[in-house]
Structures are given as structure tokens and as C-alpha cells.
Design a protein that fits this description.
10 helices, single chain, mainly alpha
């Protein structure tokens, strides 16, 4: 770490005077939770950055695969924990859903869509990380909605089965609400993304050396890929948890 980087980091940290000052004036009890969350986030970012740096440095296919598997397991754990479901019953389906959905869509982007010569850590890590992050966030909504609706309306499922419907036919109302739980926020937030988050990412890609048209194309691919990956991850997860809920 150079002296210049340390100086710039200190100057950046000085900006925290603004939120801490606002909390000191308006809500002093919130200062400690805010500081704790901030430190925890910085530590997690540092650990993640070191891991990714190591993967980039080695640039091995096997290391990339190990990193991806580890991230899907961790993502599945976060999803199940946020949904307040049983780790024993739901960790494997959630992790497998994230693994399958992100891998299928990610490989499609890397092999068929993006104009790259080979799958290296430089492309594999960011593409998979974006897909995993979005799919995990959406899977929390979809899986939580499915589990809650099924527990509250189990009688409806049993009624449909008793009237001759197949298990999948009886599950359709629950699957529909679960799908809408992940697509509705995406639809509602696209306009907000276009005005806030995406321009920042677009500018970041321009700073990184992308031509404007190439940056636009990659952003478009990312949005489409994230949407497809989240739906596919939910489908795989619900396929695996069907027997847990319906037996």
C-alpha cells in the first residue's frame, strides 16, 4: 500500500463526518449500530477483495470453480437465514438453485454472448458475482413468499389434490405468487436503476476503458442475465423443495 493510497483513503473516510454528524445531532443512540455495521461491511469487503485478488492472481479454472461453489453455498445460507427456514432442509436446494441458475446463464453470457476469447478469472468472477448477488436477493423474496403462502394455504393445496389435480397443478397458485414476488420488484425498479445505479456503473466502465457502445451492451447483457438467472434459480430451488413442503 503506497503513501498516496493511504492519504486518499483517509480523505475518503473524512466524508463519514457527514452521516456521523447528522446522527449525533438527530439520533445519538443510532451512532453505535451504524458504526458497527460500517466496520463489519468494510471488513467483509476487505476479505472479499483479498479472495478475489487471489483468484485473479492464480487465474486457474479449478480455483474459479471452487470459488463459485463456495459463493453459492454461502449465498444459499444467507437466503435460508433471511427467510427464517430450516438450514437442514433448505440449504441444499437454495445453494443448488443459485449454482444452477447462475452457472447456466453465466456460461451462456461468457460463451455465446460476450465477445471474449476464453473464460478467464477477469470475466468469470465479475459475471458470476453479479448474477449470484442478484439471484440471491430475489431468491429471498421468492422462497420466503412460497414458504409463507404454502404454510398459510396448505388446505387449498390439499383441496386441489383431492379433486384430482396433479401435485404441480395444485402448486401453480403458489408458484405464480412466488414468481411475481421476484419479477414485480425488478419491473418496478428498472426505471429507478436507469436513473441511479446503472449510470454509475456505466461511468465506471467508461473509466475502466470501455467504449460507450460496448459499455451499454455489457450493461444490457447484465440486466437480462440477472433477470433470467433469478427466475431459473427460483425454479430449480422450488423444484428441489417441493417434496419437503408437499409430503
Amino acid at each position: 500500500m503506497t503513501t498516496s493510497l493511504i492519504l486518499h483513503t483517509i480523505l475518503a473516510l473524512l466524508l463519514l463526518i457527514i452521516p456521523f454528524g447528522a446522527l449525533y445531532v438527530l439520533d445519538r443512540p443510532s451512532i453505535r449500530p451504524f458504526a458497527t455495521a460500517l466496520v463489519r461491511g468494510i471488513i467483509q469487503l476487505l476479505v472479499f477483495s483479498l479472495i478475489v485478488w487471489g483468484v485473479y492472481k492464480i487465474n486457474s479454472t479449478w480455483i474459479n470453480i471452487i470459488w463459485f461453489i463456495a459463493m453459492t453455498i454461502w449465498g444459499g445460507f444467507i437466503v435460508v437465514n433471511k427467510c427464517h427456514l430450516s438450514i437442514k432442509n433448505y440449504l441444499l436446494p437454495a445453494s443448488a438453485g443459485l449454482f444452477g441458475g447462475s452457472l447456466i446463464v453465466g456460461l451462456w453470457l461468457l460463451v455465446a454472448v460476450l465477445p471474449i476469447e476464453g473464460i478467464t478469472a477477469r470475466w468469470f468472477i465479475p459475471i458470476m458475482a453479479v448474477l449470484l448477488g442478484h439471484s440471491a436477493a430475489m431468491l429471498v423474496r421468492g422462497l420466503s413468499n412460497f414458504a409463507t403462502m404454502f404454510q398459510r394455504n396448505r388446505a387449498q393445496y390439499d383441496f386441489l389434490l383431492g379433486n384430482g389435480a396433479s401435485p404441480w397443478k395444485a402448486l401453480m397458485p403458489f408458484l405464480r405468487t412466488s414468481l411475481l414476488a421476484i419479477l414485480s420488484p425488478t419491473i418496478a425498479n428498472l426505471s429507478a436503476l436507469a436513473l441511479a445505479t446503472l449510470p454509475l456503473l456505466f461511468c465506471g466502465m467508461l473509466i475502466g476503458g470501455f467504449a460507450p457502445i460496448n459499455a451499454f451492451a455489457v450493461m444490457l447483457y447484465a440486466i437480462i442475465g440477472c433477470t433470467a438467472s433469478s427466475v431459473l434459480s427460483l425454479g430449480i430451488t422450488l423444484l428441489l423443495v417441493k417434496n419437503i413442503n408437499c409430503k
